[in-house]
Amino acid sequence: MDTNLLPSEKKSLIYFLSLYIFLAIIILSLVSTMYYNFQKNLMFSQIRPKLTEYAKDVIYRLKEMHQSLGEDLHYPRYGGFKSAIYDADYVKIFSLLENSNVELEKVIYKTGKKIHFIKEPDAYYLGAKYIVIEVEDSEEWLRNTIKNIFIFGFMFLIFMGFIGYFLTKLFLKPMKESFMLLDNFIKDTTHELNTPISAILANIETIDKEKIEEKLQKKINRIDIAARTISNIYQDLTYLILHKKISSVIEDVNLKELLLQRVSYFKILAQSKKIDFVLNINEDIFIKADKKKMAKLIDNILSNAIKYNKVGGKIYITLKDRYISIKDTGIGISKEKIKDMFKRYKRFNQSEGGFGIGLNIVYMIAKEFGIDIEIKSKEKEGTEVILRW
Amino acid sequence: MVKIFGALLLLVSLGFGNVYEKNCVNCHKIFGPDLKKLFFAYLLKYSSEKRVKKALYEYLKNPDPKKSIMPKEYLKQKGVKKRSKLSDKELKKAIDIYWEKYRVIGRIK
């Protein structure tokens, strides 16, 4: 089965499997109970003629005792079974039973390891309305029943497992198809974007900005920012579609160098909203990872920090051993929404552009390199993304 | 002659014994039926102490041939007994003594 499932797919799959397992267990329990009761009743019907004979022997003897008018009150004792007599008000007249837990409304039942059989004589000799016959149950039938329940139950569960596997595949198919449709759409759209964006960026770089007047320089800067934004989105989408095919080149990545480089890249974009970077990056910190992917991870966090920041806000970046913190002074996000942040196509602010894939990429890259992400956020105060590894 | 003798014997013995003996045993001894046989007949029909005592009480309070435990032939010959004149308390006491005398519970070995 495909193990690269999205959290939403995993959640649906877990719900479905839980329900499926629950139903399978219910069916198994019901069938097992029915089978157990059937086997028990079969055993009762097999033993019943013998117990009826025992009861007749007791009744015959009771009749003799009754006819002696109380002169002979020696209760009969037999080797193969025990017995007791009860009157019409369920009061014990005499008992030799080992298990005194009697249920006189029933005909035959099992109590502990004993089988009790209740027989009502034609007349109440010595006042006895109920004759209880007690025999030991060898429980051979019970052992066979349990054995069969285990064997057939196991086979049933394996069978249900196979059906479950195919049902799950069937269940996930429409979900996967809808994601695939969206992915294909993005893939087709983005493919056509690459060449014009590259052309715009390359041409802007060739312009000597110092030779042109200030007004035009501002306009060119805006074009540069817009093109870089599109370029970022393009790269994100490409990563999302191709990430399974991109193999990582693991090396010691200097995070100080990388962070400074990415800050410099986003500087023009940040300046457009009058956002200042406050850097606390001193030491050379290294991480074993793919440099391009780490750049993408940082880009996405920085891009969000700018996108959701207020005009004239700040972005605080701290780098320490096994620790990066990127904190903005923007709109923040409510606690309930934090857990959904890494879902693909999830956007919390419709006023800003984007496809809602940035943090999904962050999540995938962080997962690949064993980086833990912690999000601290307060609405209208800002968001802090902390990476630990 | 026998009846006169019996009546005399009854008058003499009425002064002795408890409520059961005075009011039940003395008469049954002379005119029958045998109280022990009667007890086992009640036991055979009514089973429990509560039911036997209730049946006895109701019959003694209001003797009805339909409710009698005796065979029809016996009733044809001797008819039913007269209604007991004992108070409820005395009658219940007499029945309790009767039950205690012939009960099987606790005596079976």
Topology, element by element:
The complex is a heterodimer of chains A (389) and B (109).
Chain A: H1 7-67, E1 82-86, E2 92-95, E3 108-111, E4 114-119, E5 130-136, H2 140-191, H3 194-206, H4 214-242, E6 250-254, H5 255-271, E7 276-281, E8 286-290, H6 291-307, E9 314-320, E10 323-328, H7 335-338, H8 358-368, E11 372-378, E12 382-388
Chain B: H1 2-13, H2 19-31, H3 35-46, H4 49-61, H5 72-78, H6 88-102
Describe the protein's architecture and organization.
- The complex is a heterodimer of chains A (389) and B (109).
- Helices cover 52% and strands 18% of the residues of chain A.
- With 389 residues, chain A is α+β, with helices and mostly antiparallel strands.
- Chain A has 2 domains: 8-141, no CATH class; 248-388, Heat Shock Protein 90, CATH 3.30.565.
- The longest helix of chain A has 61 residues, at 7-67.
- The radius of gyration of chain A is 40 Å and the shape is rod-shaped.
- Chain B is mostly helical and 109 residues long.
- Chain B contains 6 helices and no strands.
- Chain B has helices at residues 2-13, 19-31, 35-46, 49-61, 72-78, 88-102.
- In chain B, helix 4 crosses helix 6 (88-102).
- The longest helix of chain B has 15 residues, at 88-102.
- Classes of the chains: A alpha+beta (389), B mainly alpha (109).
- The A-B interface holds A 65-66, 69-70, 73-75, 87-89, 91, 93-94, 123-129 and B 36-37, 40, 43-52, 102, 104-105, 107-109.
CATH class category name of the largest domain in chain A: Alpha Beta
Task: Supply the number of helical segments of chain A.
Answer: 8
Please count the beta strands of chain B (DSSP E, at least 2 residues each). 0
Beta-strand percent range of chain B: under 5%
